[in-house]
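DUF3304 domain-containing protein: structure tokens wanted.
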Amino acid sequence: MSDAMIRGLFVMLISALSLQGCADAIPDRLGAPIEGYSHTSAAINRFSVNKNGGPNLAPYGYGGGQMCCATLPVKWHPGLTVVVEWEKDPNPHAYADWPKPRYSDAWSKAAREHEAKYTRHRAVVAVAPYERLGVVNVHFLPCNQVAVTAGLMMPRSPNYPYKFPQKMQEPATCPTP
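Answer:
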């Protein structure tokens, strides 16, 4: 090998070693898309996970499209929780009985009265264990309960941690926390 080739290899080796310090380390946290599932007759007008928005959900609806993103640890750890906040319309089909024509003064008054009945909720929710971070799935259950997963498995997968029926009835009385 000639001296020029040895010098060239030496320069490439030094360059490669010096650039290695510029390489990003594997991050501790990543943004994961958010998806929701309403297992009740209420509509979820909006919700968020750690202040990041999720889609609105129809009664007994799922999906609603993925929104971006809830930042979570790449690796699950015991005690991992998220804050879920949501607005719920307990009677999403009431508009069918509102006065006509649409957007008239009477219709607008009915809409305002209806919106006054929306309820707002906040819960600190444990995240089910996951091997690898994936989609953040938020399940809205009766009695304003919420369950959250964040792995690569989707509902109806055999190893999915929750087996909630799509349609769940609200009990006459809910347990007090």
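Helices lie at 3-20, 105-115. The longest strand covers residues 62-73.

Cheers.
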